[in-house]
Amino acid sequence: MERSSAPLVKDYTVRFLSCLIHCVLNYSQSIAKEGPFIQYRDERLGYTYNSGARKGFEAIDDGGVQLEWPRNKRQVALPEAKRSFQDITNGRPTVSDKLLGQIVGEALASKLFKDCNISTENVVSIVAVKYYIKFFHFNITEGFVHRFETLLPTDENSDMAAYLQVHSTHWFDMREHTGRKYFVRHILGLVEWADASIIETNMVG
Q: Which domain of life is it from (predicted)?
């Protein structure tokens, strides 16, 4: 029986993304830095969210960029790898509803884990498809969480706080110099953001 290569293709994508992130993190942080350090986590973590009988889901990430300190580990970004693009529109790859729903679920579940992320309201996802990479920034406020838990999908609501705010980059092509340059810049931005959170939350103390 011929075995499907689909899982292997995804594993290769995860490995490719992890190597890229490892490289940037290793060379962007001073060897004289006392800590905490921003490192890549190869281990997959599961997140469970349950607000009662109406809503609940599980999410498993593909590793993570995390801030490591002997007493703390906080997530900086959640990678998600796919073996191929699900939707192509006018010859250009697009984010399918299924993929968006998956990374939204991971972001929401990780946000609701106590002391899981470096930010209480902001979650970053890094989506990799083959050699393309895209960054997503979710702003998940307490107001949104409250409305998510109390409203039904069919409920009409004109309050903008009932909607999840998300921003994303273009697809960065790792085969091209420009794509790699912007990828590195975004990882460096995550490092700077994580370092700043240490001071804000007094994690070291």
A: Eukaryota
CA 82/CA 77 separation, integer angstroms: 16
Is a pLDDT exceeding 70 seen at residue 203?
A: no
> What's the rounded Cα separation, in Å, for the pair 194 and 92?
33
Q: What is the DSSP letter of 141?
A: -
Q: What is the pLDDT of residues 140-195, one digit of tens each?
A: 988 888 887 777 767 777 776 667 889 999 999 999 999 999 999 999 999 999 98
Query: Where is mean pLDDT largest: 23-37, 126-140, 154-168, 189-203?
Result: 126-140
**Local structure of residue 25 (DSSP, 8 states):** H
CA angle 111, 116, 120 (to 5 degrees): 50
Q: pTM, whole model, 2 decimals?
A: 0.85
Amino acid 141 reads T
* Contact indicator for 23, 35 with CB cutoff of 8 Å: no
DSSP secondary structure letter of residue 174: T
CA gap 39, 67 in Å, rounded: 6
How far apart CA 134 and CA 125 sit, in angstroms, is 8
> Who's near 97: CB < 8 A, 6+ residues apart?
none
| Nearest to 106, CA basis, from 73, 129, 135, 77 | 77
| Exposure string for 153-190, b = 16+ CB within 10 A, e = fewer | eeeeeeeeebebebeeeebbbbeeeebbebbbebbeeb
Q: Tell me which residue of 151, 122, 193 sits closest to 55, measured CA to CA.
A: 151
CA distance 14 to 120: 26
